[in-house]
Each structure stands twice: as structure tokens, then as C-alpha cells.
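Might you be able to check the C-alpha cells below? Thank you kindly.
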Amino acid sequence: MNLVISPEKRDPANPPRRYRFEARLESDARILCVSHQPFVDAARVLVDEGYDPTEILRMRRLGSETIALTAQLGAAAKLTVEEGPSDGPRFVQHAPWSSDPALKQAAACRTYGATRQKPEKSAHGMALRARRTATPGSRS
């Protein structure tokens, strides 16, 4: 299964903060995701859609025949890309987002760059903050 990535099409008057890529299957014109980490995000989309996690996923840039990344679909879906202040990008274990709708929206905004409206505070979030401030000897 071949994944083809191309730079996101953006309005020149609104340049992106981060360079992102559109990811599509070679055999399909549908955009799977628009992301700064298209290989792992597209893998998660494909696994969620029911593709076989043992199938091999290969990624290349549009217009090139050179394979840039290869992995089993299920293995790639379990990863994310993390970049620290003193080191370059690296693959780390993906931590799925909570089922809280506000957190899901935040995750979608980070991946797809949507405009996020400020969510209302959930009872869970308020209880967590209250617990932190009530714990003796805790540092914030």
C-alpha cells in the first residue's frame, strides 16, 4: 500500500506556522489527512477504517518514486513524531486522546489546523485543577 504526500495547498496571504502535507493512497484521490506527520497520522486513519494492520505502508513524495518511509500499518499507527528543543524529530509511542469532546477537538485542530473555539470547562477538568491546588506540597 503506497501513501503519496504533497505539500498542503495554502493561501499565500496566510502562511502556515508549520509545514504540513496532504496524504493520499496512491490508488485514491481522497485526502486521508493534512498533517506535519502524515505517515503516522494516515496510518491511524487507515487502521480506523479497517485496513489490515499487518499490511506494509510505504510513503513517497508526489512526483518521486523514492520510498521515504516503510512500516507495517499497525506499527506506524502506534507512533507519533516528537521533537525536543535540543534534538531532532524522533518516533515515540502514540498516546490516544481522551474521549472528552473538548480534547478530541483540540487534537483534531492540532492535526488538521482547524480553528478551535474555546471549549467550556468540563467538570473533570475543574475537579483536576481543584485537586492539584488542594494537594499539600504540590508545585504548579
The first helix runs from residue 38 to 48.
